[in-house]
Automatic annotation (TrEMBL):
Residues 9-36 form the Putative zinc-finger domain. It comes from Pontibacillus chungwhensis BH030062. Belongs to the zinc-associated anti-sigma factor (ZAS) superfamily. Anti-sigma-W factor family. This is Anti-sigma-W factor RsiW. Transmembrane segments: none annotated.
Amino acid sequence: MACIENGTLQAYLDDALTRDEKKVVMQHLETCSSCREELEELQALESEIEFSFQEPDVDIDVDAAWRSFENKIQGKEMNNNTIVIQNSEKRPKPKGVLKLTTKTKRFIASGVAAATIFGSLAFPQVQVAADQFLSMFRVNQVEMVKLTQEDMNEVDRWLSREEEGTYELKGLGEIGISERTTDFNSYSEQSRFNRVQDAEEAGYQVPEIDSLMFESLNIDPGYTMSFNLDVTKANNLLTQFGVEQQFDEALDGKTFSLQVGESNNFDFKRGENQINYSKIDAPTFTVPEGTSVEELKNNLLELPFVPYNVKRQIQQIQSIEETLPLPYIENEGEKVEELTIAGNKGYMMSSDQVATIMWQEGEHIHVVDSYTVHGQKGIEKSRLTDQELKSIANELAQ
């Protein structure tokens, strides 16, 4: 196999490849010293860039910064079509929702993805919105500065570690992870099994599917992700974004949470085709007693950075306490089909590149998908046909 292009290596570092594409890259890196050296150079360059944007290690008076920030905002009539940035240039404010990367434009179903959805709905009313629409006054530099993407990435990195603990949101609240279902995270060796016997000895059942060969099992642990906001400050910031809906004051200092279900992620192979199957304990969303779930749902829908198609899916939920949204983000050339899998309502998303089927049975969510993997010399592995994937889904549901 020829050496991997730099763009593909960078996508590998950015976690922007599919599971199958990652495997192809990893297998190549095992035997190609030239590509390993190139990858190390890219990693070193990325570390240099990240270091350049790190904030000075100083204590910040958050309340003073907030007051200064509000005074500056209230002392000016801000143009709704501009943002404040460090070099004082004016650029148009994004209208509508932010564009998502390619890897997010698919069904969002796994426990980790579910946590990410509600993490983006509940926490980044400060971090994401400030990153995209406003600048925040920083006391130690006495200037208006634009929050960097690194500020956002830091939260993502903390969440991805899946470690129990609390992350302080700089005076605006906190996010916590607790009640993890395993004593390991999804990145540890304990979470991966390459033989059926090893998986079954560890207590995990591997489904048998005609003509499919088991390749691996990866466990994503379940856990509770909790949020505790300073509602007054969060609502002030939302008002400055022009958002009419506000978080209920009754939520101030109280906790609402998402129970992320444990996910068993299987890789199968049939000839040149790769098939991924995930079985996830259905997650649940809980709020403090006396809080209107419907009101909270509506407030989340009003956040300016929640994509329209995700909002549309949430709006269709009758009871957010019992049902987690499984959003589908439409892409050009993709189609959605409602279907029945072993008597259960399900959905299929398909395009030339990917086909995904999702259904819920009892307290478990099931997702099966197949991707087209592109190599440097054209298509190396094509995805299964829609009918083939439907057949596998029905067999899994038996």
